[in-house]
Write a structure and sequence with these properties.
Blueprint lengths: L3 H8 L10 E4 L3 E5 L7 H6 L1 E4 L4 E4 L2 E6 L2 E7 L3 H7 L4 E4 L22 H17 L3 E5 L6 H12 L2 E5 L3 H14 L7 E3 L2 H9 L9 E4 L1 H10 L4 H10 L1 E6 L6 H10 L4 E6 L7 H10 L5 E2 L3 H7 L2 E8 L12 E2 L2 E2 L1 H11 L1 H13 L7 E6 L2 H14 L5 E4 L5 H10 L2 E5 L12 E6 L5 H8 L11 E8 L3 H17 L7 E4 L8 H42 L1
Helix pairs in contact: 8-10, 14-19
Amino acid sequence: MISPKKKNESLMKFYNPKVAKVIRRTRMGCLVQPYKPRQSYLLEQNTGQYDNVYHRYVEYVGFKIPYNGTLCYVTYNRTYDFLKRALPEYEITEAKHNEIKFFSEDIQLKGIKEFKPAQSELIGSIDQSIKLKNERVWFIHLQTAGGKTLLATYYATKFSMKTMVMCFSDNILRQWVETFETKTTIDPRRMIRLTGNLMDRLLAGEISPYQYDVYFATPTLIDRWANSRVDFKRVSDFFDRVGIGFLIYDEAHRNVSSVVRLVSVVNPRYQMYLSADFGQGEFNRELQFKSIFKMVPILEPTEQVQRSMKYTKLVVVEYNTYPNAIEKEEPFNRFGYDGTSFMRYEFRKGILQNVILHIIKTFLNVELHHRMLILFMNIEHVDIVHEDLSKRFPNYKVGKYYADLPQEEKDDVKDNADIIIATYGSFSTGLDTHNIKYVLSCNQCNKVQDNQAAGRSRPLPDGTDSVYFLLVDMGFSYCRTKLKNRLFYLQETKSKDDSAYHYIYNTVMHRDDFVNDYVVEGEKRAEEMVKKRMEETAKKKERKKKLKSDGEEKT
C-alpha cells in the first residue's frame, strides 16, 4: 500500500497555483480547483474514512485528481456554508449541464402490457417530481427483482436523450443490453459497449457521435481511461462530445469512489441511481454513502407494496462445534475477525458440512423442480463441498460456479444444476436464474451480502415461498452477536414474515458416518497444512542462515 505521504508527493507535480481558485458544483458533486494536499483539514477529514489498522484517514468520498492541467479535489455535493468554512478564499460557481443530443430515431417500449405495482408507483412519483419540483436526479431504492432495469429503460425512451448505462458488473451490463433489445424498438446497432480505444476515437471525432444512442460502460473503465490520460477533464469532454443527457447508474451502492469521481466532473441533464441496498459493510461507510444522496429525492414504493413483493422466509440453523478456549481465538487476528480463518476452522471440525447434508436430505425435492444454492466466500471451500456432494448425491446434478471457470460451464450450472455451490461474489448481483427455492449462507456475512444472497432466489412458478438459511455456529459469541444485526436488516428488506424460524441442529444426535468422514478428511487437511507451514518455516531459516554466512564471508 502506498503511504499517504508518498501519494501526496506524487500528486504535487500536477498542482498549479496559478489557476483561479474556484469550486465548481454539479448537481451531485463538487470540484475544488486547484487543491494542494492537506490544504483543508476539515474537508479531507469530513470526506475520509478512519483506518483503525493504520490509524489514519484514507480517501472514501473525497479524492485528489488531475483535472484540466492542475490538481483538484472532488467530493459529493456539499452545502454552500460548509464549502465557505472549509475553503473561504474560493469562489463557488454552479456547473452547466453537459451538452445533450437526442436519439436519432424514435424508440418506444414493446411487449409491456402493464407495469408492476411498485414500478407504477415510482413512475407516478418521478413524473410528479418533474412536474412540481423540476427534479432531474433520483435515487431508486427497490428490492431485487422489483423491476429497476425496466423502469430506467422506460425513462430512457421517454427522455429520448443519448443515454449512458453504468454498472460494475459485466453480467449486469449484458442484461441491460438484452432489456433494450427485447423491451424496446431500438436498432441493436445503435447500442455500444465502450472501450478505452473507442472512447478515444469518439472524442477525437474519428467516429460520429450520432452513430450510437445508448452506451454501456463499467465505472472501472472510465476511471482507468481518465487515469491513463492523466486528466479527468477528458471524461467531461467525452460526455459533451457524444451528448449524454441521461445517466443511469445501476447498483449504486457498489464502487462508491467511482460514483463520486464521475458525478463531480460530469453534469448530465437527467440522472438515475438504482440500488436494492442502502447499506454498506460498516456503519460509518453507510453514513457517508447516504450523505452522497442527501440532496436527492430517494424514491421507494409504499410499505404495503413492498410487503406484497416479499417472498422469502428466513431460517436460522443453529449448530455448535463446541470450540475450546484456544479454538475460540482462531478466527481472529490482530486486525479483528477473519472470515477465511473461521471457515478453515469450521471445515476442520466437519460439523458445518454435516449440517449442509442434513438440510439437503430434509428439504430438497428435485421432483418439484426446486433447486438449491450454497454460498461460500472462498473458492477452496466451493471445490471441497462440490467434490463431496457429487459423491453423496449421484442422482442430482451438482455444479460449482465461480469466476475462474469457463463461461459455458457456468451457464450450464446456472440453468440446469439441482445443487449449485458458488461464491458470494460470483453468484451475486444481476445474476438471475430460475427455480432456486433454497439458499444456504454458510459464512458470517454483512447485511449487504445477506441481502444480495437472499435475492438470488426468485418467486417460484408454483407460488411457494423461497427459503434463506443462515448457518450459525452458536459456539462463538461473535456469530451470536452478528446474527442479531443480520436478522434485523433481512426482516426489513427480504423477510415475508416479521420473525425468523430457528432450527436447532443437534450435533451429537446427528453425528453419523458423514460427519466422521468429514472429520477424518478435515484432520488430514489440517495435518498437511501444518506440515507445509513447518517446511516453509524451515526453508526461511535456511535462507536466513545462508544470507548471514554469505555476508560474513564478504566481510
